[in-house]
Amino acid sequence: MGENLLKIENVKKAYRKYNLFGKEISNFSALNGLNLNVEKGQIYGFLGPNGAGKTTTIKCIIGILEADSGDIIIDGKNIEGNGLYFKKKIGFLPEQVGLYGRLTAKESLQFYGGFYNLSENEIEKRGKELLSKLGLERDANRKVAEYSLGMRKRLALCVALLNNPEILILDEPTSGLDPRGVKALRIVLKDLNKKGLTIILSSHVLTEVQEICSHVGIINKGKLIREESIEGIRKEIEKKSIRLLLKVKEFTEKNSKELSKKKRIKSIKQKNNGKHEEIIIELKEENIPWVTDFLVSKGIQIFSIEPQKNSLEDIFLKETGGD
């Protein structure tokens, strides 16, 4: 076990609405006793369906919201009453980056660096390093309004890293980026992590989480329902049955029952596209040749047989009850 850097214990947070007379008219519990642990040096994937409480959790960690109850502990100390101290330890990259278009990249870093009480020399030195690392050194004197979305994201990441934080929190960092931008961001994050930075990554792009993260936590309805290392997830995926996507013609319900009866092969999805039927079946690898022989023996026309890899997405859907 590593050393805990962030610990959330039984945190609850509700959103309340009041009428003009101050009477509560509605109450929605976003967090219902959330518990999770992030250890130093991890890249922690923070997952959950829409409305699960991810954004509320992040806002409570960075101090935008105050939890109704429970404890948020960073490096052994409770953040309650120590907000300014802990904000210096955290870098945050929101999904929608807020930068001033009339400022240049250099001016933006000077502006935001002032909030951390950094000297102009510190900002200039650290800013130059970050702009170079994130490929913005040549564009340091251009107005932000002239930047592409990918460039603005990279500049916002420079701002988030300016105070040399211990924890970097990213909310949908690849949103709006093209594949080249996603790959570049992935390389930068892995490099920062190798140098000791702990990263919390909230994303709906599960393939990206599976690629970059060392651990994942899945929340649903304001509670943690699964916390696991990516290695543990991979081992679970390997134990699962293989899936095949069959594109065939004249496949009947009777054929499906025969597959299940003879080899316990489970037909989990069937769709008719007019020209052929698409069927996803779950089976053991050694039964693949048998399936092919079975289809041929029944006179079923085969258009294609494609393996379907299990993934973090399958685990996510299973844990959250998704279709």
Summarize the structure in words.
The protein is of the alpha/beta class. It folds into two domains: 4-236, Rossmann fold (3-Layer(aba) Sandwich), CATH 3.40.50.300; 241-320, 2-Layer Sandwich (Alpha-Beta Plaits), CATH 3.30.70. Helices cover 35% and strands 31% of the residues. The chain is built from eleven helices and 14 strands. It has helices at 54-62, 83-87, 105-113, 120-133, 149-161, 179-194, 206-212, 230-239, 253-263, 288-297, 312-320; strands at residues 4-18, 24-39, 43-47, 69-74, 77-78, 90-93, 167-171, 198-202, 215-220, 223-229, 242-249, 266-272, 277-283, 301-308. The strands form three sheets. The chain has a six-stranded mixed beta sheet with strand order 6-7-8-3-9-10, sandwiched between helices. A four-stranded antiparallel beta sheet has the order 2-1-4-5, with helices on one face. A four-stranded antiparallel beta sheet has the order 12-13-11-14, with helices on one face. The model has no long low-confidence stretch (mean pLDDT 85).
